Amino acid sequence: MVVWEVLARRRETSAFRVQRWSTNFAMLVLGIVSIRVVLPMTLIQLADWIGDREWGAIAVLDLPFMVGVAVSVIALDFCLYGQHLLMHRVSWLWRLHQVHHADPEFDVTTGLRFHPFEIAVSALYKALAVVVLGSPALAVLIFEIALNSSSMFTHANGRLPQRLDRLVRWLFVTPDMHRIHHSAEVSEFNTNFGFNLAVWDRLFGTYRQEAALECAQIEIGLRLQPGRASSLGSALRIPFEKRTLSSS
């Protein structure tokens, strides 16, 4: 993804680059630690444990194994779409999610930038989804690989040919589609919530085809004091500040 950004950059970036990258990578490390704190096992281990007990919707439906895997992967993606909506609709969740949106630029490292408390909440949410669905371990493995890969891809500052972008986004989220979600305009960042599959936004009326401005003119991030969201300490404090930006 980094090579793609270098060879086919979509937008010029300059905002506190080294500090931003350091902060975003530090967020990744803190997020990994937070998962270990809240979950005693990995999601794949949890799926194995659930499978041994034949719990969850997949077991109740008694689906063929590979059908159950496919249904689980799609259902988990829908659950993440729902979680993303909640992150924008519920005030205390939005406080956490603001840290991701506060990145003043949009590149592959933005996909690493989540407050450790948001990562912890997300891990618990995904664990609940795995239990309710009774997702097979293989489905969880596929979903986690797809989720982490798409997080890098959809946040990449890389250029796709316009026709290809329009074709791909009928099914999958593209960087140009997700960049609209990172606009500073409320009417734009409350659209395009999908992670992997773009169909949920189309089905539930949250899809936006274009931003009001051309790509190069889109204001990325939240309207915070310049540089404030780029340092690790400042970014970690955002959810706890008395004044916080509304998501609506």
TrEMBL record:
<dbReference type="GO" id="GO:0006643">
    <property type="term" value="P:membrane lipid metabolic process"/>
</dbReference>
<feature type="domain" description="Fatty acid hydroxylase">
    <location>
        <begin position="70"/>
        <end position="206"/>
    </location>
</feature>
<protein>
    <recommendedName>
        <fullName>Fatty acid hydroxylase domain-containing protein</fullName>
    </recommendedName>
</protein>
<keyword id="KW-1133">Transmembrane helix</keyword>
<feature type="transmembrane region" description="Helical">
    <location>
        <begin position="21"/>
        <end position="43"/>
    </location>
</feature>
<keyword id="KW-0472">Membrane</keyword>
<dbReference type="InterPro" id="IPR051689">
    <property type="entry name" value="Sterol_desaturase/TMEM195"/>
</dbReference>
<keyword id="KW-0812">Transmembrane</keyword>
<feature type="transmembrane region" description="Helical">
    <location>
        <begin position="123"/>
        <end position="143"/>
    </location>
</feature>
<dbReference type="GO" id="GO:0016020">
    <property type="term" value="C:membrane"/>
</dbReference>
<keyword id="KW-0560">Oxidoreductase</keyword>
<dbReference type="InterPro" id="IPR006694">
    <property type="entry name" value="Fatty_acid_hydroxylase"/>
</dbReference>
<dbReference type="GO" id="GO:0008610">
    <property type="term" value="P:lipid biosynthetic process"/>
</dbReference>
<dbReference type="GO" id="GO:0005506">
    <property type="term" value="F:iron ion binding"/>
</dbReference>
<dbReference type="GO" id="GO:0005783">
    <property type="term" value="C:endoplasmic reticulum"/>
</dbReference>
<feature type="transmembrane region" description="Helical">
    <location>
        <begin position="55"/>
        <end position="81"/>
    </location>
</feature>
<dbReference type="Pfam" id="PF04116">
    <property type="entry name" value="FA_hydroxylase"/>
</dbReference>
<dbReference type="GO" id="GO:0050479">
    <property type="term" value="F:glyceryl-ether monooxygenase activity"/>
</dbReference>
<keyword id="KW-0443">Lipid metabolism</keyword>
